Amino acid sequence: MNLRPLALLILIASTAHAGVELDMEELGKSLGGWNKEKGKAAEYKFSESEYRSYKPEISRSPDGGIFISMRVDHLRGMFSSSDHASLEMSFSPDGTLLSAQAYISIQARRISSDMFRSGGKSAASAVGQVVGGTGAQAAKLGSDVFASLAGKILRENVTEPGRVAFPAALRHNYNMLYPCVHFVKDPPKALPVEEPAGAAATTAPVKPKATEPDKKTPPDGMIEVRTFGEPQKEEPKKAADPAKP
Q1: Gap between the Cα atoms of 133 and 225, Å rounded
Q2: For 61, which of 65, 192, 207, 208 could close a Cys bridge (C-beta 3.0–4.6 Å)?
Q3: pTM over 0.70
Q4: Helix/strand number for the chain, H first, E second
């Protein structure tokens, strides 16, 4: 008996991949749109000063979490060099915000906040839910980071308004970035499975023909209603009456 090879599609039964992802488009909209530097940055005004935020760099940690680094510039004008800053956040594989830190570079000086770490779980419990639930823990972490940074800026005798407001501008980016981090779960994927070598050419599985709903036959003397283009049914021939010639 000749065996026909079959090409089968099976559904992966193992646990689907789960992970933490950053919605880059959502973040861009919250900052006014990625419309600068060839669509890689957003410019906006904060506390009457000009700032530019770049699309964050994302790297996957060895344990499956993610590390996010976001550059923010203070635009000081055509004849002055811009100040630069970096915002860093780490998330665990289950969506827990692990740590946050910020840096500001003003001319030759580099000022950094203390490193603050999360004290407990703040992971999302459902697919697509914003990481951190209510975000109370993330708000506390952000307050600690930027209070530390602002205090160090003041100790440097910085007086320019845009520089004094730089920690607050970074916190604005922190507040916009955090809701854009989501815990997602990939749906199961269908993969083709081929027969062992030596089998003949594969054939696609035959799909069962869809059954049409039963159509009622109109009673004698009534006009049959048909859709446009539908062929008219041939009426069955009646048996001849032997009494009639």
Answers
A1: 59
A2: 65
A3: no
A4: 4, 12
